[in-house]
Amino acid sequence: MALAGGVRLIQLREKDMPISRLTKLAEKIRAMTKKKGALLIINDCLDLALAVGADGVHLGQDDLPVARARNIAPDLIIGVSTHSLKEALAAQRAGASYINIGPLFPTKTKKWNEKFLGIQKMKQIASKIKIPFTVMGGIKAEHIPDLIRAGVKTIAVVTAVTAADNPRKAAKQLLALIRSG
User: Fold this and answer.
1) Which of 36, 68, 110, 169 is catalytic?
2) Domains annotated on the chain, with CATH
3) Residue 59's CB: how many other CB atoms inside 10 A?
């Protein structure tokens, strides 16, 4: 439904699914993203990303190091979750294609025991890096105008689309809001 709403990048993030089921799901989503001309990024699992022909992998701070992933898959998009300037700069030096900065706001999709970054901290981190970045963490429609004004071009959401009564409509509305910024 997100693809039907205009989304052109899907990150498959299933932390607790057995790999056999996750592989089948990834293959199904890869077919859908190819049909729509959208990118597919697999969360955490470089082997799965390569196995299903995904466009990239997104690594967390406790996953395979970026430099190792880059050696294995030199042409793959490699994204990294970052929560501080130190982590962002390290990911950039290691060869990440992009970083994700967050979580910006309270969210239930990520366990987080620290202070949420907010827009000002995100701006400080983004101003020091030279590679593309995305933002995530509790982002709702009301945050988008401020994020766009802060220079954000790519916004990652989960529940703003997946928990909506109509995910297709929610994706379409969020994209329109981003594009109007």
Assistant:
1) 110
2) 9-180 (3.20.20.70)
3) 24
Which pLDDT belongs to residue 180?
A: 87
Asked if residue 108 lies in contact with residue 159, where contact means CB atoms within 8 angstroms, the answer is yes
| Catalytic residue check, 21 | no
Query: What rounded mean pLDDT belongs to the chain?
Result: 94
| DSSP string covering 123-162 | HHHHTT--S-EEE-SS--GGGHHHHHHTT---B--SHHHH
**pLDDT tens per residue across span 34-55:** 999 999 999 999 999 999 999 9
Active site residue 110: yes
Told to judge if 127 belongs to the known catalytic residues of this protein, a careful annotator would answer no
Q: For residue 146, give Cα distances in angstroms to 16, 26, 27, 44.
A: 33, 33, 36, 29
pTM: 0.92
